[in-house]
Amino acid sequence: MSSKKPEKTRWLEELLICLLLTAFLLTEAEAQQATNLSRIGILAAGSPLSESPRIEVLRQGLRELGYTEGKNVIFERRYAQGRVDRLPSLAADLVRLKVDIIVTGGRPSTRAGQQATSTIPIVMAAAGDPVGNKFVASLARPGGNITGLTTIRGDLTGKRLELLQEAVPKISRVAVLWGPPAASNLKMTEAAARSLGLEFQSLEVRSPGDLEDAFRAATKERAQALVALRNPIFLNQLTRIAELAIKSRLATIYDDKTFVEAGGLMSYGVHFPDLYRRAATYVDKILKGVKPVDLPVEQPTKFELVINLKTAKQIGLTIPPNVLARADRVIK
Q1: Which of 90, 167, 237, 305 could be stapled to 78 by a disulfide with Cβ–Cβ 3.0 to 4.6 Å?
Q2: Whole-model pTM?
Q3: C-alpha span between 253 and 235 (Å, rounded)
């Protein structure tokens, strides 16, 4: 009796072996691919809605540098939804995940990242005064695990006040809407106002519930214009601030065009998409082995002025032609 297996049986066994070998090789390839994935943590004070345009610019910048999400990079996003007190736990979560880099937005998220880790590289996409906040030793020599870009340019605060002076005839008193994390910016704004001969009114806001009282105080003291300083409290309140400013007939300027898009009068400041695009180059260099300590912090180089003519009409203000001519964008 022959001991040879039937031809069909041998063929099935060989097919099974090939299938098992293919499955093994695919598993190994997937494991290798997973090992090669870079994990980038995103730590932001705002909401996905408010932050997504900037994060998308960062992702686009990384795509242009050869990073494809799911192929060689994955993003771990953590949003505080405007609640700064949540940032420390969100930062700790990213550290537990052992991300390769943490990308932060402004001062609160960078502070939370700094307190959570001294070893994982942190790239600031748009942090204010990193030296004054002790995130870095100096712009040229960061000195630790943090580097990136700053929004600080000393002439911006004065520039916003000058624009208000040009837009509002015979302005003499300006109110400043701010929250506790912006204390250093408040001092710079007050100094700039004094240098321009403007009376100064401080309007501190500790929660969204304080906004109406702040605008009532501005009206009571006969403020003619208002500067709103960037603050996590305001991130989800821009439409409300714009509405209160219109109701109070106050010419208001902010540092970000999202305020104007929400109905605010004017914005002048750093072009944030440019900062987030440049942040992608920091991420790329660090993933390729460059240490944060060897990457100087860069300042903004691109700025934009945005004006909402519909809002100007609502508060009875005519924007002078020479101001409109300098606008990068006019909303009608």
Answers
A1: 90
A2: 0.72
A3: 15
